[in-house]
Structures are given as structure tokens and as C-alpha cells.
Write a structure and sequence with these properties.
Bound molecules: fe (ii) ion
Order of helices and strands: HHHHHHHH
Radius of gyration: 21 Å
Largest sheet: none
Number of domains: 1
CATH topology: Four Helix Bundle (Hemerythrin (Met), subunit A)
Strand content: under 5%
Structural class: mainly alpha
Number of strands: 0
Number of helices: 8
Distance between the termini: 49 Å
Length: about 240
């Protein structure tokens, strides 16, 4: 079901109940019944969830790429890199973090202000690596001469982004949030939704989640029970 912004929900409620006089409290109740609002930081963090799932796919594949590059589904890996490009780099990083989050955090006092410059440099390095991944996965198979450097680049990318997203979730986003009231955050959340709709249509997040699910399927990584840890040895 497409996510609706507060404004859209309100407009819908007003239209469908045009003949009835409704109090603001009733409007709010109708709104909360329809779909829970996704806050701005929740939005950013669930985007990280999609990107982390792409990183998990990358991490699973790195050794196989190094050892048996011809056995890798190059088209599915290409699709993962395309998802990281459009949803991660072009949207989440460029349109949200670099436009809305980092400029504010940069001006703050304290620990968080040190992060934006480093994080932007990492965004740029990430783009270079994604360009490379897209180039070497564009054919039906990964050529053997690309196997070792691609595996290395993927492992470096995964390590960088695991650190990157974890710092954003725990230091940068919470610091950014301190600058706003709840009402302002609601408005920003709607703004983020508008950007998402402009870039991807009605279901940006839902489509990205489906895409990563399909990629996991293609590599036999969809069933998470395979990742349940074995029992530890007896001490
Ligand atoms: Fe970032
Ligand atoms: Fe991020």
C-alpha cells in the first residue's frame, strides 16, 4: 500500500467526508487509523535498512567473486549496484543527507559536526566504486581479470558503509533531529515523502524493498533462517 503523506491523508479525509462536519480531533483519529506516520529519521533509517541488505548481499558474494567469478549472476549483481545508485546515492545521500541533514549538522557545536565532511567524502568514494561495479557487471559474466579487484572493492565498500550508516543512525541523525520541534519534523517528513514520490512515483521505499528482496532471491539469500547461528561449542 502506498505511503500517504499527512497532507494527502487530510485531503482524502476532507473529500470523502465533505457532507459531514468533522472536528479536528476526528480528522486526527481518521488519520491515525489509516496509516501510521513515518517520521523523518525513521524514514532515513529504514532506507539504511534497504542499503544494509544490499551490503549483506555484497558481503556474501565477495569471496565467491574472487574464487569463481563465472558462477556469479552478473545481472543480479548489476541490479544491486543500480539499486544502490538510485535509491542510496542519488536519493538518500544526495537529495536527503547532503541537501537537508548535513548542512544543519555542520553548523552545530560538538561531536556530530565533525562528521558531514567525512561522510560526503565517503559518498563520493562510494559512487566511484558503484561506477566500477556497474561497469564490470554489465556483461553476461564477470571476467576473470576483474575477479580479485572487484572482490576487494566490494569488501572495502561494505566496511566503509557499515561504519558510515551506523554513525549516521547513532550520531548524525539524532543530532540533526534536536534542531526541530515535533511539528517541524512532521513537515520535514512530508517534504521527504514528496521528494521520494517525485523521484520514484508513489511507492519508492516499497519498490526498493521489493527489489532487494528479488536480488536476495536470485542469490539464494532470501530465507533468513539460513543465517541463524549454529550453537556455540561447550566451554
Ligand atoms: Fe550518508
Ligand atoms: Fe545514510
Amino acid at each position: 500500500m502506498p505511503h500517504q503523506t499527512r497532507r494527502e491523508l487530510l485531503a482524502k479525509t476532507i473529500t470523502t467526508t465533505a457532507a459531514t462536519l468533522i472536528a479536528p480531533a476526528a480528522l486526527l483519529a481518521a488519520e491515525s487509523k489509516n496509516e501510521p506516520e513515518v517520521t523523518a529519521t525513521e524514514d532515513l533509517m529504514r532506507e539504511h535498512g534497504v542499503l544494509r541488505r544490499a551490503l549483506l548481499v555484497y558481503a556474501e558474494l565477495a569471496d565467491k567473486i574472487r574464487q569463481q567469478p563465472a558462477s556469479i549472476d552478473a545481472a543480479a549483481l548489476h541490479k544491486a549496484a543500480q539499486l544502490f545508485r538510485t535509491f542510496g546515492e542519488d536519493y538518500h545521500e544526495k537529495m536527503l543527507e547532503e541537501e537537508h541533514i548535513f548542512p544543519i549538522v555542520r553548523k552545530m557545536k560538538g561531536e556530530a559536526a565533525k562528521y558531514p565532511d567525512i561522510l560526503v567524502a565517503q559518498h563520493h568514494r562510494g559512487r566511484e566504486i558503484t561506477d566500477y561495479m556497474l561497469a564490470v557487471t554489465s556483461g553476461p559474466r564477470i571476467a576473470s581479470n576483474h575477479a580479485a579487484p572487484l572482490a576487494r572493492a566490494i569488501q572495502d565498500f561494505v566496511l566503509m558503509y557499515q561504519n558510515h550508516a551506523a554513525r549516521e543512525d547513532t550520531i548524525v541523525f539524532p543530532a540533526w533531529k534536536e534542531n526541530f520541534t515535533s511539528r517541524q519534523l512532521d513537515e520535514i517528513s512530508d517534504q521527504f515523502e514528496d521528494i521520494e514520490h517525485k523521484m520514484f512515483g508513489a511507492d519508492g521505499f516499497e519498490d526498493a524493498e521489493k527489489t532487494i528482496g528479488g536480488i536476495e532471491q536470485a542469490f539464494g539469500l532470501a530465507d533468513i533462517s539460513q543465517f541463524t547461528a549454529p550453537p556455540p561449542p561447550k566451554p
